[in-house]
Design goal:
Elements: E1 4-6, H1 15-22, E2 25-26, E3 30-40, E4 43-52, E5 58-68, E6 78-84, H2 96-99, H3 108-127, E7 136-144, E8 150-160, E9 166-171, E10 177-178, E11 188-191
Antiparallel strand pairs: 1-6, 2-3, 3-4, 4-5, 5-6, 7-8, 7-11, 8-9, 9-10
Length: 203
């Protein structure tokens, strides 16, 4: 389905509340109910229970992209694009609490999407591990820097930033120190042992 834009969100002031209501309804042939939902950035994820006459209740994952346009000639500023897990959405950061509510499925795209979401959640846990000075980390996906160098293995450099707080930096194989934004959200493995020496400004 394409994007649907509207002038406002009706009686709601948040996309989450609007979409929770939008995907909860009952008709003669089918009823949907949002059991649990969450906004991750601008993407709405939800576990939705589907009840249909003559069939067992089934819980599937719904995904909606959301967008707010600052200016629009028609005044339609609020938009969303909905899909379900069988479409194999590119967005795959669904919280584990929602994934755990889903019914078993045989849809290939849905199975692959759930696996990507699980992998993302696992990578967040791995990224949350506290890095220590002197360790070596290897990211699952290599990164290309503005100077054209592609690298995925780095040495960990801990410096003291403002108010003496630890500041994590990474050293490339050519010795250049770099900052990797949102490194905790990237899948990586830790190799090597930490050293007791404190990082020096000249490193």
């Amino acid at each position: 389905m394409g994007w649907l834009f509207m002038r406002d969100l009706g009686r709601f002031n948040r996309f989450k509340d609007f979409l929770d209501d939008e995907f909860t309804f009952s008709r003669d042939d089918v009823a949907l109910k949002v059991i649990r939902s969450a906004m991750v950035g601008s993407t709405w994820y939800a576990a939705v229970e589907k009840r249909q006459y003559g069939a067992e209740p089934f819980v599937f994952a719904a995904v909606c992209l959301t967008k707010v346009r600052r200016r629009d000639p028609d005044g339609c500023r609020f938009g969303y694009k909905d899909m379900d897990e069988t479409c194999g959405p590119v967005e795959a950061k669904c919280p584990a609490g929602i994934l755990n509510l889903l019914s078993p499925t045989t849809y290939e795209y849905a199975i692959a999407w759930r696996a990507r979401c699980r992998a993302y959640q696992a990578s967040r846990k791995a990224g949350a591990a506290r890095l220590a000075h002197g360790q070596t980390v290897t990211f699952e996906q290599p990164m290309t820097f503005i100077d054209g160098v592609e690298e995925k293995t780095f040495s960990v450099l801990i410096r003291r930033g403002r108010k003496m707080r630890p500041c994590v930096r990474f050293v490339r194989s050519d010795g250049r120190v770099c900052q990797i934004r949102h490194y905790r959200h990237r899948a990586f493995r830790i190799e090597g042992k930490a050293t007791d020496a404190q990082a020096q400004d000249g490193i």
